[in-house]
Backbone:
């Protein structure tokens, strides 16, 4: 895995300045339309109050019609029109869609699927990010774009590529992978010994014998049967290649532009290690297309983005009404949903929302995707909501910029390695890492209006008073040391289940069970067993009388002297063994879970730590309402509370204060009822 010092582009400071305003707009593809129609498009954007559009991300052919022949006058004309209308531009680098002359002249840049089949021209993301030739050609087009457009006054920011994803399995990629292994392990015997390859006679005589096998990490849909350490290494290598590909472009942009750089992640916690990739970016960005019935799928991504940088995140793609990258689905249902979701992103810590896309394609893929105007230029459904949102963001932007979304006080710690671990070695049919974090940890906190972030183990723990570290199978040694120091200083920690039981090489520890976490836990493992098929005959019984059935996997503990046992297993292999233990360290306390618990038991343990840490909910009641606290950055005190009802029925909720409703006007008492899909912003 790449370290910051190994990245080719300079790593941005985490202290990135906030935007001076909230930005609102869409993606626009002027290369699809005659220049005579551009002014009408820009006039309509201005009519609905858009302040920023994303442009040029698929326009490589227009910039470079043939190799080393460049055309940028048309792009400057686009930027001129936007600037005259008071609209800024995010420039997307066009490397997601290389032109046909390039893939014809340099067929080696085309990606290779796990089946061994080369990808063909005419798609998107059909290149190999490990290709030296493609990296050089990508740097060249980005360099020219910066030289020609970087100093234009309309330019606000840059986006690298578009929704990058996928692993490559071509011969060039395999050669790079073998060199990656040589650099990491030095010699083949060290690799054999580290991975324990005497099992099944898997040991290699040379690096050249190592296969480039399929690594569908991050998903339970295709369980793996190759060696776990090899699959983990391939995932790290593939992500290192993606980071270098992004770094190449970031480096070229920074040579000629001071504007911030971002890109748009997709998915949750899966094959692409976005924590690593965003280290070379100035801002975290995202695409989101979950529909209203599943808005809560997005909450974990919002929590993850908010914890990423000391600056607002950017929502770079969501549908303005419906989505249509295949079957059409009506994401926001109606204009109330458009407004609710757009506000949700801003209130949870964003400062930009861009719809995909401005104008319907008249040809090509995704012609039925929802847009702001049709291919003829007629308005599509949503205009009144877009105008209302633009007016609200203009009126309240200064307040929201001055009062950012609260970070913490609770954080859930996660990483991609654990997602990969539980896809390579799934343990249980229902153990999908992202889903389990969302459904059993994050959403119980959301329902109780506990403000939380989703953070990486390398994040700063000091800003949080309570950490939850569930199923973090692989923890870097440095993170373990910081966890221990954080607890000693007064932090409250919920550890486990299935945390710390693997090395970073995807092996079990040989000299311990938890790689040194035992002292922090105040216990060692006495037994491990599967409750699968017999969960309903095993109970986890708490000393206070509560109980539930275990799930997925069970660790039993042998507590050290001074460690309190909070629950025991009753029935099954672990009958009478400790299932949950508590240990005090310095000013802090650790509760360690031996198995996943139901929501009632989990939250009872959480509440005991929260009471000690002074963590309180933002509100009570309000099923389906998302609470978004905004704070005074100088004091950290609560300044306002954003409320979004994500359901189509009214929701009563009790607030910790009364105040002025900045969105709807008037004074609100502590008892508030939100109408279906209503948004409120109540200033204390």
Residues:
């Amino acid at each position: 895995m790449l370290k910051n010092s190994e990245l080719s582009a300079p790593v941005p400071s985490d202290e990135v300045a906030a935007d001076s305003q909230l930005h609102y707009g869409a993606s626009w593809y002027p290369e699809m339309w005659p220049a005579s129609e551009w002014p009408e498009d820009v006039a309509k954007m201005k009519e609905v109050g858009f302040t920023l559009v994303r442009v040029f991300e698929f326009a490589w052919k227009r910039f470079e019609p043939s190799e080393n022949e460049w055309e940028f006058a048309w792009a400057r004309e686009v930027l001129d029109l936007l600037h005259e209308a008071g609209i800024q531009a995010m420039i997307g680098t066009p490397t997601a869609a290389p032109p046909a002359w390039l893939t014809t002249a340099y067929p080696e840049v085309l990606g290779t699927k796990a089946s061994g089949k080369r990808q063909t021209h005419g798609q998107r993301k059909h290149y190999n990010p490990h290709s030296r030739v493609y990296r050089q050609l990508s740097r060249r087009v980005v360099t020219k774009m910066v030289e020609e457009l970087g100093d234009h006054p309309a330019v606000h920011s840059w986006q690298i590529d578009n929704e990058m994803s996928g692993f490559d399995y071509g011969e060039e990629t395999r050669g790079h992978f073998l060199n990656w292994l040589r650099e990491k392990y030095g010699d083949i015997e060290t690799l054999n010994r580290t991975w324990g390859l005497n099992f099944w006679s898997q040991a290699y005589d040379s690096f050249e014998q190592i296969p480039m096998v399929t690594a569908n990490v991050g998903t339970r849909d295709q369980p793996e049967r190759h060696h776990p350490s090899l699959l983990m290494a391939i995932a790290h290598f593939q992500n290192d290649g993606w980071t270098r590909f992004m770094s190449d472009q970031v480096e070229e942009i920074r040579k000629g532009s001071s504007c911030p750089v971002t890109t748009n992640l997709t998915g949750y916690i899966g094959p692409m290690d976005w924590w690593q990739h965003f280290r070379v970016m100035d801002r975290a960005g995202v695409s989101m297309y979950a529909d209203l019935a599943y808005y809560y799928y997005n909450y974990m991504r919002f929590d993850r983005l908010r914890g990423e940088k000391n600056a607002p995140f950017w929502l770079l793609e969501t549908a303005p009404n419906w989505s249509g990258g295949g079957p059409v689905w009506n994401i926001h249902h109606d204009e109330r949903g458009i407004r609710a979701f757009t506000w949700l992103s801003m209130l949870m810590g964003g400062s930009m929302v861009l719809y995909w896309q401005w104008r319907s394609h008249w040809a090509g893929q995704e012609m039925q995707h929802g847009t702001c105007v049709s291919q003829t230029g007629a308005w599509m459904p949503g205009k009144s909501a877009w105008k209302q949102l633009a007016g609200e963001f203009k009126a309240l932007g200064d307040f929201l910029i001055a009062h950012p979304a609260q970070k913490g006080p609770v954080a859930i710690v996660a990483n991609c390695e654990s997602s990969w671990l539980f896809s390579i070695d799934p343990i249980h049919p229902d153990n999908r890492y992202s889903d389990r974090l969302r459904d059993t940890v994050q959403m119980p906190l959301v329902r109780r209006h506990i403000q939380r972030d989703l953070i990486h183990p390398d994040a700063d723990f000091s800003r949080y008073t309570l950490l939850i570290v569930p199923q973090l199978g692989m923890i870097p040694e440095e993170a373990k040391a910081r966890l221990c120091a954080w607890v000693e200083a007064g932090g409250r920690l919920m550890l486990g289940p299935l945390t710390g039981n693997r090395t970073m090489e995807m092996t079990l520890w040989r000299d311990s069970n938890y790689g040194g976490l035992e002292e922090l836990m105040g216990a060692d493992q006495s037994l491990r067993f599967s409750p699968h098929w017999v969960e309903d005959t095993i109970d986890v019984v708490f000393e206070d009388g509560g109980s539930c059935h275990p799930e997925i996997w069970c660790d039993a503990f042998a507590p050290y002297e001074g460690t309190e046992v909070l629950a025991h297993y009753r029935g099954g292999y672990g009958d009478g063994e400790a299932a949950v233990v508590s240990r005090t360290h310095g000013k802090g306390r650790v509760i360690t879970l031996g198995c996943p618990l139901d929501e009632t038991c989990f939250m009872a343990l959480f509440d005991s730590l929260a009471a000690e840490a002074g963590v309180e909910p933002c509100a009570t009641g309000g099923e389906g309402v998302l609470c978004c606290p905004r704070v005074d950055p100088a004091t950290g005190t609560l300044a306002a509370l954003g409320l979004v009802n994500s359901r189509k029925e009214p929701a009563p909720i009790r607030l910790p204060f009364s105040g002025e409703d900045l969105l709807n006007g008037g004074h609100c008492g502590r008892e508030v009822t939100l109408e279906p899909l209503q948004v409120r912003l109540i200033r204390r």
The first helix runs from residue 38 to 47. DSSP finds 17 helices and 28 strands in the chain.
